[in-house]
Amino acid sequence: MMVEIVKPGLETAVQDYPGRVGHLSAGFPPSGPMDHWSFRLANLLVGNHAGTAALECQFVGPSLVFRAPATVAITGANMTPALDAAPIELWKSFAVAVGQTLQLGAAKTGARAYIAVGGGFEIEAFMGSKSTFRKAGVGGLNGNALAAGDRLNIGDSRGVPGRSVPAERRPAITSAKDWTIELVAGPHDDWLDSQGRVNFVNGPWRLSGKSDRTGFRLEGPPITFSRIATEKAPENGSDPSNIIDYGYPIGGINLGGQTPIVLVNDSLTMGGFICPYTVPHAAFWKLAQARPGDIIRFREISVEAAQEMRRAIDAQLAIPA
Predict the structure, then answer these.
(1) What percent of the chain shows pLDDT beyond 90?
(2) How far apart are CA 252 and CA 265, in angstroms?
(3) Within a 13 Å sphere around the CA of 210, how many CA atoms are in the beta-carbon half?
(4) FRET partner for 261 with CA separation of 20 to 30 A, picked from 13, 46, 165, 290?
């Protein structure tokens, strides 16, 4: 029961959900899928638990040869998937026979696609997770992105081909290049002055090509600081955005000088720059599907509203038989 990698695509890697939780103090971020909504739906389509190990494909997808029959589903970005050159429908499970080749190309809409296989990928867990964390070389297959010639074992499949997700239950991944992404104030919003907070939230920001699963770098308006940042004790550092080292929140918008960086799945776990705002987990799918050059505008919400967003997404994960 095995899948062979013919072409790896761009940094295709094994992830599971919610990832490597509970190890930030040891320097290990959660990793896991960037677009957790699409990832979980892919697993449910093939009869897996929503968090089962599957593949995350970034910008350019892989080519895979199946050495065993399987039930497969592809969700997220449209990488024009094909099975033996025949187009495959996204958001719908399908059967693959022994010897068939599944091929994904460059993303036409969105940035990240997910391939789930009934039974999941049988890989040894590290710290309770199979998620790949490349910068530490742990998890996934040999702690790295997939390479040509790699082989992945799959478990027993009980998936049913032909199951699909209605459009209203999917994330809205379109060709639009302008995203509105929710954020919550804190932990250091008071380090910006009133105009600085207005500029920060309203933007607009452009997603830099110098972005990856560690951080999404934003380019946009200047940031101005309050007296807390400019009249602080010297041990906090000389730059207004410096602070005594602390544990960074996942989703925190880290402010190194005038460059905001959204700390995402493989982020640094601590450091000495402020995070005026935090992107809630429920909005991560939007970051995952944004492409370099896209415009990001923020919308400030309450913690309670962010929690309701998460509950609303979870409610979409019930797929009719």
Answers:
(1) 94
(2) 11
(3) 6
(4) 13
Question: What are the pLDDT digits (tens) for 106-137?
Answer: 999 999 999 999 999 999 999 999 999 999 99
Beta bridge partners of 95: 71
| Beta-bridge partner residues of 182 | 299
For the four alpha carbons of 139, 140, 141 and 146, in that order, the dihedral sign comes to negative
CA dihedral of 47, 51, 57, 61, whole degrees rounded to 10? -10
What span, in angstroms and rounded, lies between the C-alpha atoms of 79 and 196? 39
Residues 41 and 98 in one domain: yes
DSSP code, position 311: H
Q: Which structural domain range is residue 306 located in?
A: 178-315
233-291 pLDDT, tens digit per residue, is: 999 999 999 999 999 999 999 998 778 999 999 999 999 999 999 999 999 999 999 99
Residue 278 sits in a domain of what CATH number?
A: 2.40.100.10
Taking alpha carbons only, the member of 22, 16, 27, 11 closest to residue 62 is 11
State pLDDT tens for residues 5-21.
999 999 999 999 999 99
Name, in order, each residue with C-beta under 8 angstroms of 233's C-beta and a sequence gap of 6 or more.
none
**Strand partners of residue 144:** 141
Residue 321 neighbours by CB under 8 Å, 6+ apart: 160, 163
Threshold 0.85, pTM exceeds: yes
What's the rounded Cα separation, in Å, for the pair 221 and 150?
A: 45
Given the DSSP bridges, would you call strands 178-185 and 295-301 parallel, antiparallel or unpaired? parallel
- Check residue 119 and give left, alpha or beta (phi > 0: left; psi -120 to 50: alpha): left
Q: Provide the strand spans (E) within 70-214.
A: 70-78, 82-83, 86-87, 94-96, 101-103, 109-117, 151-153, 178-185, 205-207
